[in-house]
Write a structure and sequence with these properties.
The protein is built from six helices and 19 strands. By secondary structure, the protein is an alpha+beta fold. A nine-stranded antiparallel beta sheet has the order 4-3-2-1-6-7-8-9-5. An eight-stranded antiparallel beta sheet has the order 14-13-12-11-16-17-18-19. Strands 10-15 form a two-stranded antiparallel sheet.
Length: 296
C-alpha cells in the first residue's frame, strides 16, 4: 500500500512539473515576465495602436527614424531600448484569468497594443492596460495569453510616449566649420556675416570674432522647445518677422528659417526645407537673429 501511495505521489509531482513547464511557453520566469533584449541594429519598427490612434516609429536608414511620417529623435529610440534592456524593468504576475482583462484594461477593446519588429519578425507583442496602484507602472499581457503582469520600471513609462515626445526637436544640425555665411533679415533690414581666412566680416566691416563665432555655433546646433498645438490655428509667417539663411563655404544653401510670433507672444521658427514649425526660446531667437549693431 505504501509503495502504491509513493508511486502515486511521484506521478502527481511529475504531472505538476510538466504542467508548470507547459504553461511557461513564453519563456517568462516564474512570477514575472521576461522582456527580450533588442539592439538598435535589428529594430526596424515600434508601434503602439489603440483603436484608430497609432504611434509608429520606423527606421528609415542611416540611423534616422520617423514617427508617423515626421522626424523622430534617435536619442529617444536609444532611451527606449536602454529601458527595455534594463533588468530593472520587471513584471509581477497579477492574474492568470482572462476575466481580469477588462478590469485591468488589457483587453483588445481598451488596451494599447505595443509591438516591436525586426523586418517581418515580431520581437515583442504586448497589450498595455491601465496604470498600476499609485500610478506605478502598467498592467500588461502578451498577445494571445491570459496571464497579466504589473510592469514597473523605466520601460513601463516608455510605452506611453506620445507622437510629440518621440519627435525630434532639432531644427538645424551642422558642423559650425561648414558654415561660410549667415544672412539675416530683421525689421526690414538685411545684413550678412561671412567667415573669411582673415576672420569674420559683417558686410565690408570686421565683426567681433567672439560674437560671430557664438552666432555660427548657435545656428549650427539649433533646437526647439516644443511643437505647435494641432488644435490651434496654423501659424502663417506671411510675412515673417525675421528670416535666417545659412550658407556653406561654397555658397550652397544649408538651412533657411523664418521666425514669427503668435498672439500669445511665443516665438516660432519654420524650417523652409520641409515646412516644420518649432517653438523657440526667446533668448535663442535673439541669438540666431541679432541686430547688426550687436555684432560690432
Amino acid at each position: 500500500m505504501l509503495v502504491r501511495i509513493a508511486v502515486a505521489l511521484a506521478l502527481l509531482v511529475f504531472a505538476w512539473g510538466a504542467l508548470a513547464i507547459f504553461r511557461r511557453t513564453s519563456g517568462d520566469a516564474p512570477g514575472g515576465i521576461t522582456l527580450p533584449t533588442v539592439t538598435a541594429a535589428e529594430l526596424t519598427r515600434i508601434a503602439v495602436r489603440q483603436g484608430l490612434d497609432s504611434v509608429v516609429v520606423e527606421q528609415e536608414g542611416g540611423g534616422a527614424w520617423r514617427v508617423n511620417g515626421l522626424p523622430a529623435a534617435a536619442l529617444t529610440v536609444e532611451r527606449f531600448l536602454a529601458a527595455l534592456n534594463d533588468s530593472a524593468s520587471a513584471g509581477e504576475l497579477i492574474s492568470e484569468s482572462a476575466q481580469s482583462h477588462e478590469r485591468l484594461a488589457v483587453d483588445t477593446v481598451q488596451g494599447r497594443r505595443l509591438t516591436l519588429a525586426a523586418g517581418e519578425r515580431t520581437l515583442l507583442d504586448l497589450w498595455v492596460g491601465r496604470r498600476g496602484p499609485d500610478f506605478d507602472g502598467f498592467y500588461v499581457r502578451r498577445a494571445g495569453e491570459e496571464r497579466v503582469y504589473l510592469l514597473r520600471g523605466a520601460f513601463a513609462e516608455q510605452t506611453a510616449l506620445t507622437v510629440e515626445q518621440w519627435r525630434d526637436l532639432q531644427v538645424v544640425r551642422l558642423q559650425p566649420e561648414s558654415i561660410g555665411r549667415i544672412e539675416v533679415m530683421r525689421g526690414g533690414k538685411a545684413w550678412s556675416l561671412s567667415r573669411t581666412d582673415a576672420g569674420y566680416r559683417l558686410g565690408a566691416l570686421a565683426a567681433d570674432s567672439a560674437k560671430a563665432r557664438r552666432l555660427f555655433e548657435q545656428v549650427a546646433n539649433l533646437r526647439g522647445t516644443a511643437f505647435p498645438d494641432a488644435r490651434e490655428p496654423p501659424l502663417r509667417f506671411t510675412p515673417p518677422d525675421r528670416t535666417v539663411r545659412v550658407l556653406g563655404r561654397e555658397g550652397s544653401l544649408l538651412a533657411a528659417l523664418a521666425l514669427d510670433s503668435s498672439e500669445s507672444g511665443a516665438i516660432w521658427v519654420r524650417r523652409e526645407a520641409d515646412g516644420l514649425v518649432f517653438k523657440l526660446d526667446a533668448r535663442v531667437a535673439e541669438l540666431i537673429s541679432p541686430r547688426e549693431t550687436d555684432l560690432h
